[in-house]
Structures are given as structure tokens and as C-alpha cells.
User: What shape does this take?
Amino acid sequence: MGIVILCSCKKMMDINTDPDRLPASSNLYPQLLTSAEVNLGFEGGSDLFRYTTEIMQQMSGQASQPNQSYEYYRYNVTGSDQNNLWGSMMASTLSDLELVINQATAAGSPHYVGVAKILKAYEYSKAVDTWGDIPYSEAQQLDKNTQPKYDDDATIYPKLIALLSSAITDMNAATSTQSPGTNSTFYSNASWTTARPFWIKLANTLQLRLLLHYSKKDPAFMVSQMTALINTAGITFMSSNADNFQHPFYNVANQRNPISAFEVSRPNYLFADSKMVGMMNAKNDPRRPFYFSDFPVGSGIYLGVSATAPPAAPNNNYSRIHTFLRGAVTTAATGTNSAVYSGAAPQRILPYAEYCFIRAEAALMGVPGDPQTWFTAGITASMQEAGVAAADITTYLTDNGSLAGTNAQKLKQIIEEKYIALFGVSVEPWNDWRRTGYPALSVPTNAITSVTAVPRVLFYPQSEIDLNPNNPGQKADNLQGKVFWDN
Assistant: This one.
């Protein structure tokens, strides 16, 4: 289905109407779900994607001086930079989802409630992973509380895991006045009967992602909780790339993948980073022709920007994001002219390959499963998703697909392969690095002097500092504060 960009009910009202009060008609939840899903899809490839992709040195702004992405790469990400992201997450996506939950509950439509709860859990987990303590228990109360308190982030995660379990109960309800259908932009073009199994797999798989985040802080808890979940009778998780949680985009104005759209509107802002490209070059990784354009064009050479590199002159001296995240080439690159892309690439949020690597790491720690089996499955799923030929997958697995050494060495292999496989997924590679230290990263030589190590958290948005007296205040931690699971 095509994407219909809807505004939330808050944006459609007259300016003299309280934007947070429920509308007189409380049956807008089907439209609100569509709006929230579209917002969430665009968020996946927008500001937070750029911050975390540059922090993790998958992409680089080093060669874009004096553009904004150059500042992000050197860790100059301010509170003011976070205003739009926070507003999109809290005031748009999460607000719309809360309205869906409230209205659909009142209307006797638990299937809508269940889907909204899954998306709410995902969005809140992303906020916790980015900032730590955030409003939760007093958030999304519409006009009843416009200055919510901030909850201890450690208390939020258990509520999100419980929310996902509750969502499954809702989606399994025998009757529902209305059920999501083709108005849902995730798992689209499907009836509810067809779509529900995908949503249930997602809810269970997302629980595993959240539980894995405890691996550093409380590994025993992680192992016991994941084991119990995996051993639950009748449980289903993602089982192939067909289950990928991703948002579709199209070769239509205003409906193109946001990563590709940014490349068009902000050319020469982002390039491939030598960290990721170097790791792939060292293994002759067959995903390179899908992930990145070669330089020079037609050479089969993939060149990333070093953290010590000067600005490119001209700015096309490095590999760029290619078809995997931008869609098919519609006009080939010639000379110094860049290729033109369709923009019809999905925005990846939680792919099946990630689930496989979650299981590989968890199995290494004692959760049911064989680490090697899941490691192989993760690499295979990633390469199949990218479009790599079967013979090339076999060759890569022969050369690089065997776990070896101590558990620490095996963990390094798992996370480094996961880092490559999650190209285009916002935040999660950063989460993995904060938990495990892999892949090893070096601070850019021109990083701002106040930030002497790779960031572990982002500043609160300046809008919250200015407008919410319950905000705990900007921490003087130079981006070295830690979310609860990173301690």
C-alpha cells in the first residue's frame, strides 16, 4: 500500500483548541495508528539514525566540513539538536499511540490496543536507550499533566516487557470491534488474520532484545528470563526475513526512505566510515556492493573516511550509502555525478538477522540454543536480505563463519558480525557497543575537547530543560552518563 502521511489529531485541530484534549469523536484510532506508524518509520532513518550511525562509525561526517554531520561525527551533539527528535517521539508518535490505546479500549477493539502497545514499548525503549531517565508514569496524560516527572530508567524496562506480554493477550482476543488491516503500514497489505502472527512474533522478539540489554548489568537475570521466555509453550519468534519489522517506502514524492531522502536533500553530508568499510574489506564481504557505492565508480573498491582524514575535495572521494538503504538505482553514476536512487527501500527497525544474533549471544551465556547455529543463521539472513548470491554466502561462511576461541573471543565475533548486519538500524549497534565494547572504536582526532571518549548517552533536549521543571537538568557528564543497563 502507499504511504498516506497523516497528521495526528493534535495537528488537525483549530489553534484555539486544546491540542491534548480527546476529540469529540473518539473513533479516530484507525487513522491515528497509521499516523503513529508513519512517524515511527520516518524516525527510524532520521536524526537518531544519524547520531548513532556516526557515533558507531558506520557512517562518517568527517569529510563534510562544515556541515552539521561533521559536528555530529566529532561528538558536538547539543541539547538543542534533540528538540525535533524528542518532539517527534513524545508529542507525535507516543501521543498518538496513547490515543489509540484509550480510544480502542473504549470502543472494544483490543486488536488495535495490542498493536499500539507493541509500538509504545518499542518507542519508549528507544528513548530510554538514548537518554536514560525519561517521563513514563506521568507521561501521555494529555492535558492532565503537561510537565511529567522523570522516572528512573531501571523501573521503565520491566513495564515495557510487561506491556509486550499484555499486547499479545490483546491481539489474541476472540472478538474486536475493529482490527488493523491495510491501514497498518507495518506488515501491510494483509488482513488481520494474516498479520497477527507477525505482530505476535515481533512482541516476543522485542522482549528478547530488551532482556539482552541486561547482559552487562545482571547476566543471571538475563539468562533466567530469556530461558523462561524461550521455553514457554507455544511461543513464536521471528523465523525468516519475511518477519522483519521494517517500514515500507516507495518511489513517490514524500514517500521515499528517509535515509535516501536525506542523501538527496543534504548531499555530501554522509559517507561510508573506514571503520565499517575496513572490517568488511578485510573479509572480502559480499555485502559491500549493496551497502556502498564503489570509488572510483566501477572499480569494485570501497573506501571509507578515516577519523583522521581531511575534508574531501571534492566531496565524492569516498563510498556512499547504496541500494540496500536507498532502493534501486534509477540513473547510474557517471564521472563525478552520483547515482540517482528510487528511495523505495524499507526502513529497517528489527530484522530477523538481529534475532539470530540475539540468540547466538544468549546461547553463549547459557540460554537454550547453539551459538554456532544461530551465528550462521544471522550471517545468512543478513546476506540474503542484502541480495548476496548463495555461492558467495557459502564462501563467506567457509572463511568467516566459524566461532572459535574463548567465549570472549566468540562474543567479539558475534557482535562484529551483528554490527555489519544491522546497518541501517537506529540505536541498536550503539546499544551493543555499550554492553560489550565491540567493535572497538577510536575517538576521532578532532573530537570536541569536552568529550574525550565515545558517547554513551545523549543530552536531554533543550526544550525539556526550558519548559519542564521536572527535568533533572542537563548532566555535566560530557556524554559519558550511562543508562541503567550500561552500569
Observations:
- Residues 258-345 form one domain.
- The beta strands are 59-60, 245-247, 271-272, 329-331, 340-341, 347-350.
- Residues 1-24 have pLDDT under 50 and may be disordered.
- The first strand starts at residue 59 and ends at 60.
